[in-house]
Amino acid sequence: MSTIHCYNNTFFLFQELIRTGADKIITEQIHSGKIYIGESAGSIIMAPDIEYVTAMDDSTAAVDLENFSSLSLVPFYPLPHYTNSPFKKTVEKIISKYESALALKPISNSQVIQNCCIKDIFQEELPRHSS
Length: 131
Description:
By secondary structure, the chain is an alpha/beta fold. The chain has helices spanning 10-20, 22-31, 41-44, 88-98, and strands spanning 3-6, 35-38, 77-79, 104-106, 111-114, 117-120.
């Protein structure tokens, strides 16, 4: 089975996906059964909206991005780099700001989201972050 792999500044990445039409291709490929692997920004763009990571990534890097609506392929908001430098404090601020408004899924660099559950790469399933 083929995989798609994406990472970068969230806003710039999404801008370029839209500009090239890759956003539609990724969506079509996922709906056709392809496995998607998104690291960092590549996981965030799966959310309904990417505005929640403005503290983590510079939204001005995407001068042509008209709004923060994203692919909306998952009903939650991935939040990578939880407990990892250099983003630990930034992630904590995002959680503090949005935990009551968004279904955040904070994950560390050694975790993955598989079938909407957070899993440690080297261990069994971990409890979900409560929002």
